[in-house]
Each structure stands twice: as C-alpha cells, then as structure tokens.
Amino acid sequence: MAIQVPGKRYGKRLQHSKVFGHGGHAKKSGYSDLLITPLVDMFVIIVLFLIANFSATGEVLMMTKDIQLPEAANVKEVEMHPVVMVSGEQVSVSGTIVGRVEDFSKDEYLNIPALEEKLRDMKKQYEDLHAMAKDDEGGFKGDINIQAHKDVEYSIIKRVMFSCATAGYNNINFAVMTIAGDTPANGTTAQVTQ
C-alpha cells in the first residue's frame, strides 16, 4: 500500500474533478455514469402517453372490403359495443359468422335464431363478468352496433334488428360514413347514428 500525504481525500468519482480532485490535467475515462432513474421515468411517461392516445383514437369498427357503409349527415361518435356485421353474403357477430344472407332471405321468420342465441350468450357473459367483479355501475345497457352494407335488403336488416331486440340489445346503433358539406367523401370516418 502506498503512503499518502495526510489531508482531504475525495472519493473515487471526484478524483478527476477539476474543482476537488486537481484533475484538470487528468486523463478522461471512456466511460461515463448513466443515470437510470430519469431514463426509466421518461419511458414510463412515454408508455402512459401512448396508452392514453391509443384508447382515445383506437378503431372501434373493423372495416372490411365486403361492406360499404351508407352515408349520413347527422352522426354521433362511435362507441365500443358488440358489432353485428351484415355484408352482401353473410351475417356475423364480433367476427363469428352466424349465417348466409341468401339463406335468410328465403326464410319467412321474423328473427334469426342463430344470431339471437349468440347475442344471448354474449349478454350472459357480460352480466356474469360484471357480477363476478361486483361492478354495479357497468351493468348491461343493451347497446349494439350494426355495420351493414348499403345494398343489403331491408328485410334482412329488419330481421337482424328484431333478433338484437329479442336478445336484449334494445339500443341499436348503425355505422355510417359521415358526409359533411366541405369534407371530401374519401376522408370520411365511420360514425354511428341512432
């Protein structure tokens, strides 16, 4: 061990400091201390910002090639609810195909039994989930979005609406494209009107 002159001794970090360690002429190290805490704080803020923006501007309706929505002027913002998609060929609920439109046009029933059963299952799942979570405020309100092709016959839409109402979904919203006076038709977004 080397013998040192008595006096103030600074820590290893301050030995090369110009003020405390007389290190103005010392060799600079290739490594520097990285402060992790502010870096982690910055990443947490960025992640929270991205999550907040994603939920605010996220797509509620999935647009497909098979469905061209009708246009409307008076609309409200679309909200997250179960979606019944009616294209020219098939009817589906939240991605599950219920049946073909061609078959439904031949039947003379007022409802679509497969659609009604699927919606009742979804309603029961929703109610069970909220009952387990003891969430009294988030009770079932019966909201549903219908995303139908503009050329689908009214009798099919009427059957879909009747099936939704029978299953307990009484607040029916239709997805439409917004037509505003100045905006071009291509720049429209999906909206819902009641």
Describe the structure.
There is one protein chain. The chain has 194 residues and is an alpha/beta fold. Helices cover 31% and strands 17% of the residues. Strands 1, 2, 3, 4, 5, 6 and 7 form a 7-stranded mixed beta sheet that branches. A hairpin with a 2-residue loop joins strand 3 (90-93) and strand 4 (96-100). Helix 3 runs parallel beside helix 4 (154-166).
Write the layout of secondary structure elements.
Blueprint: H1 36-57, E1 71-72, E2 83-86, E3 90-93, E4 96-100, H2 101-106, H3 113-132, E5 143-148, H4 154-166, E6 171-178, E7 190-193
Parallel strand pairs: 1-6, 2-5, 5-6
Antiparallel strand pairs: 2-3, 3-4, 6-7
Helix pairs in contact: 3-4
Task: Describe what is shown at a glance.
This protein has 194 residues and is of the alpha/beta class.
The sequence of SSEs as H and E is HEEEEHHEHEE
Largest sheet: 7 strands, mixed
Number of strands: 7
Q: Supply Rg.
A: 31 Å
Helix-strand category: alpha/beta
Low confidence ranges = 182-189
What's the helical proportion of residues?
Answer: 25-40%
Described by the principal axes of the CA atoms, the overall outline is elongated
Average predicted confidence as pLDDT:
79
* Count of runs of 4 or more consecutive helical residues: 4
Indicate the multimeric state: single chain
**What's the N-to-C terminus distance?**
86 Å
Strand content: 15-25%
Keywords: Cell membrane, Membrane, Protein transport, Transmembrane, Transmembrane helix, Transport
Family: Belongs to the ExbD/TolR family.
Membrane topology: Single-pass membrane protein; Single-pass type II membrane protein
Pfam family, one: ExbD
